[in-house]
């Protein structure tokens, strides 16, 4: 393996690629595909982790099942085989807890580890991004066609959905449990609207949460399956896995390539030449790689022994995330998916999936969800709270098996005001950075999450849940007043796994801008960043779909294509004088 790596890396070092893409995750796989489509440009994709490639056994089924079986998603959160396994520093406002931040380290990146929920966020997110970076071609009317170009919705396309893109998107089955329907009905009874497409005209409301699952195979559709594998046969695309990029190489401020080494052996360094370097290493590693290459706050770089090259104080700043809590009730026997998490049912559904690619294992089990506004407030003109409903329990990132029949609402706020930062610990590129999200440093964020818990309780109290709802087990009866709920929130809040915005795209006269609206690193030449780190502000939903759309849009910028545009596509306007 190591011998092969050396040979492949040495071969790669003999060429000069038009583009070297660092990171084969959600964004990197999109670019690897789009930039090689024309056949005339050469691309090298570098990925620190191993391949996710499904190995076929004699039955022709997937052996690498912990990635590709949708319901197996928790397995890879327990070890570092495909995972960078990051932790934050202790968070003083959240009982000094250190938060576990898994991130994909494998082809497909975090799209190989994530919960597969397909949510684009709200049109207002992209309109805000366009204002924040001063370029209208990042607004909703320009981004919608990129969401559509990426998507292959299982029922075909319409004004909002794509029907023939590479990314398979389906809606999970409601068959295994009555709880999904009950949750949506409870939302309607509580006075909220129902939405037929949470990614379409109306995000606000209760409805089905689609997922990035290929319904034909019953498999996770990460970006390696969607974008990379179809491009692998192209002669102008090379891929090196298990390849850690230590730093970017420069001639003064012009990027000329990267220095790489085997992920498990830092001793042998190889230099790769590039016409342009594109970082797609994600919200932790892209800023880390810029910093290790001397691009960042010059004083801070010097203090850890890195020679500054470009003083760019925004690198690693503006770090944003979503926090959520899980409100949970016991339910009556047979209603939840509890039995499927234990033998013999667990084996039975596993066998069904291996033989047919169908059944409970072919879904992510977050098939219903909602977006609501926390209060009537002219400033909150689109939903600021998201629900994922799970007819089962996730405990400690799936590291503990449930012991009872229960259901959960994962409820979180979408536009917290506390922003964090990421800094180097040392000048060793393999040291994890110091990650400080500064959760709850803005005084409004904790009360906002407390309000979200109270709204969740109100929804679970509706008639539609009567026949399914037993006692609330978490937080439980003893947490009633705002201050009691706040104490529980501090004990229980978890990341929704959405770090982002740490190399923000912004206006060129903003000193904290890291990349301009063409994704080019300020002050550098031939160097771009394209991934979730460049979001100017966090999207109001999950981040895989918006990251893919960003990469689709960036691929056209890099190729010099005119931006796609769907002017005046209608979007639901909330009545901000009412909460629901
Ligand atoms: C557990 C979990 C659950 C989630 N659930 C959902 C969900 O249900 N729905 C949703 O939309 N979003 C979800 N997300 C978030 C979403 O998946 C990510 O925001 C998105 O995938 C980020 O894409 P990216 O391209 O920025 O980074 P990534 O996909 O993380 O890709 C970065 C890639 O770069 C590689 N890399 C990094 N550094 C180097 C280096 N120095 N050299 C070489 N390679 C390097 C990494 O190994 C990785 O493959 C979840 C995330 C996690 C971790």
From TrEMBL:
Keywords per UniProt: FAD, Flavoprotein
UniProt-listed InterPro entries: FAD/NAD-bd_sf, GMC_OxRdtase, GMC_OxRdtase_N, GMC_OxRtase_C
Signal peptide interval: none
Cofactor: FAD
Pfam families: GMC_oxred_C (PF05199), GMC_oxred_N (PF00732)
Ranges for domain Glucose-methanol-choline oxidoreductase N-terminal: 104-127, 282-296
Coiled-coil region: none
Similarity remark: Belongs to the GMC oxidoreductase family.
Protein name: Oidioi.mRNA.OKI2018_I69.PAR.g12233.t1.cds
Protein's organism: Oikopleura dioica (Tunicate)
Lineage: Eukaryota, Metazoa, Chordata, Tunicata, Appendicularia
């Amino acid at each position: 393996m190591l011998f092969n790596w050396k040979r492949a890396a040495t071969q790669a070092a003999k060429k000069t690629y038009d583009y070297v893409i660092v990171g084969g995750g959600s964004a990197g796989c999109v670019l690897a595909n789009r930039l090689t489509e024309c056949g005339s440009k050469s691309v090298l994709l570098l990925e620190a982790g191993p391949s996710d490639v499904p190995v076929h056994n004699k039955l022709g089924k997937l052996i690498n099942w912990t990635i590709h079986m949708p319901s197996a998603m928790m397995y890879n959160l327990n070890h570092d085989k495909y995972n960078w396994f990051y932790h934050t520093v202790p968070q003083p406002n959240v009982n000094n807890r250190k938060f576990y931040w898994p991130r994909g380290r494998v082809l497909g990146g975090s799209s190989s580890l994530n919960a597969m929920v397909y949510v684009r966020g709200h049109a207002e997110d992209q309109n805000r991004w366009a204002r924040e970076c001063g370029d209208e071609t990042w607004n909703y009317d320009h981004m919608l066609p990129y969401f559509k170009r990426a998507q292959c919705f299982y029922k075909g396309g319409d004004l909002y959905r794509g029907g023939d893109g590479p990314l398979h998107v389906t809606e999970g089955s409601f068959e295994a449990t009555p709880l999904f329907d009950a949750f949506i009905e409870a939302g309607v009874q509580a006075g909220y609207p129902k939405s037929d497409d949470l990614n379409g005209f109306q995000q606000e409301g209760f409805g089905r949460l689609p997922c990035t699952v290929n319904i034909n195979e019953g498999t996770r559709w990460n970006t390696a399956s969607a974008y990379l594998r179809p491009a692998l046969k192209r002669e102008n695309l090379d891929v090196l896995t298990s390849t850690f990029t230590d730093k970017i190489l420069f001639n003064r401020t012009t990027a000329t390539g990267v220095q790489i080494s085997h992920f498990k052996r830092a001793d042998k360094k190889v230099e790769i030449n590039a016409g342009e370097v594109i970082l797609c290493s994600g919200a932790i590693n892209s800023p880390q790689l810029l910093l290790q290459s001397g691009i960042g706050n010059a004083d801070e770089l010097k203090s850890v022994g890195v020679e500054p090259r470009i003083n760019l104080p925004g690198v690693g700043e503006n770090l944003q995330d979503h926090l959520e809590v899980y409100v949970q009730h016991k339910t009556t026997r047979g209603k939840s998916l509890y039995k499927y998490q234990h033998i013999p049912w667990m084996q039975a559904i596993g066998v069904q999936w291996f033989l047919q690619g169908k059944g409970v294992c072919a879904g992510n089990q977050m098939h219903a969800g909602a977006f609501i506004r926390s209060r009537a407030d002219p400033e909150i003109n689109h939903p600021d709270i998201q629900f994922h409903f799970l007819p089962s329990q996730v405990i400690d990132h799936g590291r503990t098996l449930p012991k009872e029949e229960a259901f959960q609402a994962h409820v979180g706020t979408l536009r917290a005001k506390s922003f964090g930062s990421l800094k180097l610990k040392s000048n060793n590129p393999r040291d994890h950075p110091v990650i400080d999200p500064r959760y709850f440093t803005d005084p409004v964020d904790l009360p906002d999450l407390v309000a979200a818990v109270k709204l969740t309780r109100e929804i679970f109290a509706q008639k539609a849940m009567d026949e399914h709802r037993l006692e609330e087990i978490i937080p439980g009866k003893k947490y009633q007043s705002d201050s009691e709920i706040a104490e529980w929130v501090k004990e229980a809040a978890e990341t929704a796994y959405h770090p982002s915005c740490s190399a923000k795209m912004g206006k060129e006269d903003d000193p904290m801008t890291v990349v301009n609206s063409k994704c080019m690193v300020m002050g550098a030449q031939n160097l771009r960043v394209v991934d979730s780190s460049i979001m100017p502000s966090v999207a109001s939903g999950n981040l895989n779909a918006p990251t893919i759309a960003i990469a689709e849009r960036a691929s056209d910028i890099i190729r010099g294509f005119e931006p796609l545009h769907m002017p005046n596509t209608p979007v639901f306007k909330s009545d901000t004088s009412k909460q629901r």
